[in-house]
Amino acid sequence: MPKTGGNAVDIELTINGERTTVEAGSADDLATVLRQHGYIGVKCGCDGGTCGASKVFIDGEVRMACGMAATDADGSEIRTVAALGTQADLHPVQQAFVDNFAVQCGFCIPGMVIQAVALLDSNPDPTEQEVREALDDNVCRCTGYQKPVEAVLDAAGRMQGEQSVAADGGRPVTVPPHGDESTSCCGGGCDE
Amino acid sequence: MSNDDETPKADGGTASQSETVEDGRSEEHPLEWDEPENNDKAPDERDSVSHRTEKYDDRKLVTGQAKYTADYEERYPDLAYAAVVRSDIPHGHVTDIDTSAAEAMDGVDAVLTPESDAVPDTKYTSAGQSYPEPSPWDMHVLNKHVRYIGDPIAAVAAEDRATATAAVEAIEVSYEEYDYVTDPEDAFDEDAPQLFEGSEVENEIVGHDYDCNRMAHIGGELGDVDAALDGHTHVHETEWETIRQSHANVEKHTSLAYTNEDDRHVLITSTQVPNHTRRQLAHLFDIPIRDIRVTKPRVGGGFGGKQAMVVEPIPLALSLATDRPVLYEASREEEFYAMRSRHPMKVKARTAVTDDGDIEAIDIYALSNTGAYGSHGMTVAGNVGSKPMPLYSKVPNARFEADIVHTNTPQTGAMRGYGAPQGTLALEGHLDEVARDLGLDPIEFRRRHHMEVGDLDEIAGMMGGEGANRRIRSCGLDECIERGKDAIGYDDLEQPDEDHLHRGIGMALSAQGTGVAGDELGAAQIMMNEDGSFHLQVGGVDIGTGADTAFLQIAAEVLGCDEDDIIVKSSDTDVTPFDYGAYASSTTYISGMAVKKAAEDAKARILDWGAKLLDEPVGDLETGDGTVYSETSGDSVTLEDIGYEAAYGDDEREHILGKGTHCTEESPPPFAAQFADVTVDETTGEFEVHKLVVAVDCGVAINPGMAEGQIEGANHMSYEMAVSDGITLDEKGRAEVADFDEYGLPSATETPPIESILVETHEPTGPFGAKSVAEVPTNTVPPALSNAVRDAVGVRIREMPITAEKIKTKLDERET
């Protein structure tokens, strides 16, 4: 059972296209509630609303899910990183992050990918400076932002190409080399 | 991402060593290295190594499906959540802990204090180093004598996070307050408040004097530095100061503990050092090592901060007390005030230089503030000298000394670079100043003196490290300098049109190590499946570095298979072979060599089976493209056919297993040449960094894309040291930073473009010629930027961070 903080109420959410009723405590932030329902791509790196790792689309706008009360999201439509692409068929932004070695520990990446998708939706051909401004409240400790910025610029090129030629992320779709949950180096709980 | 951890054994290194070193050690450290023929492959012979292979875990990471420790929450329906009561005073004795209100709260399962049965009273260090530990045992899991604002006093387990937090707030702690000291120079005074009685510390470090808060004193000398300083007219002395930097790993320290159905005490934890953590927990809780299982899932960055066993004892104690799984996830505020940080230091550099511009002596002294406890205090300070000084190993007289001092401030620890950033700032800033003062080109001045292939580095040895002298067998410094100069546009720098704007370029060199010389162990095992695929079990720890991918590439290069045919398991102390863990830039070099040996062991068995199936001599066979093929007949048999035959054959059968274990006395330095391009406004002191260029010799980059990422990330961390305040403290030593928006981590718009250049050399002691990469570019931006500002407007900033105000003040001073 999900564990709630404070008095629990039911809220209605549409998460990645699925309508659902979830229990949320008055003290719970939206990131906690989404994570409790399995959306672990919503990451929590700060004490609320400063690192960008929990970014999701809420009614089309990018928000840090950890920075808002879950009850305030009642009735909204939420899209998380899980709605973008699958391991076998990545979104062009995700594919560009992979191909440009923009991912190290990966903890900030779902939030960065969400922000990059939002940028390219509104500005399909951004300058480097515009990409940096878009990512300005996404904290990344591993990469120095160099390769993420290059990845977003690369994704912009791929997506512009996509408009004229139907394509995926710019690389042939392949079976993910190690995509199966059962073979992940999960490290934990392998005695389950 | 790791940190260095070399261990000067004592403070007794003396000049007399150098008299015997020259001849004797030459034989011990020959230039020629007995390298296996297959270790040195030309670029076009490499099938997997030095390819930009897709990172093993990337598809899971970009889709948000990868699991970090906190993501295991859902597997444990009866999970309890931990929170910690921490000291609110800088120094004192806890006289009472009133837990009654917390214990009466609904949903509170346990409240632990220093007196609780489940809480060990054993002294320990959280350092996460090898054994015997070169850090003092001066800590307790929960404390009655508190020494900084943040010291843990009590711990709570509750049904949910909010209740755990509320319970912590409901606990009343009473103190007898003691005098406190937060400045390391004040702490050195004999009248200063004393943090430890000597008798309170076990496993003390040589040179300690707790009466004046000195945790350790280390040093060593080659030649006669004082004589050299007396004998030359050009003697320069400069002093430098560095910030208290946070690791700022975006995944917070997180640990989940439970006891499973087989009575195994399991920790799923965000650590760099599963095996050291297991050993330290066994020591603390008096549980046999074999009964503890430490596993690490994906880790959201470490940078040295997760080498420390910062959180693990808390959930384990609570889990033992409640008989439930317990998750402890530090808050971001705790990350800044109660986890670990880089040691702030003051470093003095002195040199003696002849009229001809030859450096006759280098003398470095560091005063390191280790904070309330001593983990990594001595070893980090040692690396202030032992990493940067070998760059100038031709200099005949060299001395390094350091005092490591306790204050009532947050704990420090291992952090990427591990003392080298502090030493590199002092030495590379100093030499730049000397060159400019003597009218010499700063780059040419470095070129005349820097390390080369064939040199014998005696610096680590001078500090008492047995056998720590190194013969240099790979060095790409000259090429690093040349390519860096080209990339930054050194020779055709254009000045801005406006008279008040001045543009300058600064350079700094750096060397690091690759693993702790003589104090590493890595191991790996490869199991072949009947379909010709493999399981690689390796203790080497991927904390976001891409180590799993590097291991795959090394194994695939040997086995002649596709990387996709190998499954990596790392790391789980019940399953994966022993490894010291991810620190000291050791993973690719040490654990990677263990993987190579394991793959070669498996390959030998595969070739035997190939010989049998092809009916050809083993000596004619090789692996490649998923087959064993004959170099004479051209016939081949697939690895899958071999796998089935070995597992299910008619007459004899075998599970094809390869094992490898690696340790070495070697620790070859990687090298970096850093360039910074800056424009300074002389009216305001404001400056803009246009670009950072860093050229790195890491031997053969196993995966160039990942290596570039390491370099750029390290340079960003280094840039932060040059321009940010770090964790500032108030007068009581309380961290003034509680969340990312208050911490000066340069954002995407605040970070200049970083150009990374890989300069390939071949290091014969490393797997396929590799040496380390992740730390050396962490050391270089503060001196390069200080040098660039000096180049632009002629003033020198020695106290980090470099700010417009400091530059303006210096410019104003110069005018008056």
TrEMBL record, chain A:
Protein known as: (2Fe-2S)-binding protein
Organism, scientific name: Haloarcula sebkhae
Superkingdom classification of source: Archaea
UniProtKB/TrEMBL annotation, chain B:
Entry keyword set: Molybdenum, Oxidoreductase
Keyword Amino-acid biosynthesis: no
GO MF assignments: iron ion binding; oxidoreductase activity
Stretches with biased composition (Basic and acidic residues): 22-61
UniProt region (Disordered), positions on chain: 1-64
Top-level lineage group: Archaea
Domain Aldehyde oxidase/xanthine dehydrogenase a/b hammerhead positions: 63-179
Pfam family, one: MoCoBD_2
PANTHER family hit by this protein: ALDEHYDE OXIDASE 1-RELATED, XANTHINE DEHYDROGENASE
Name listed for the protein in its UniProt record: Aldehyde oxidase
Species whose genome carries this gene: Haloarcula sebkhae
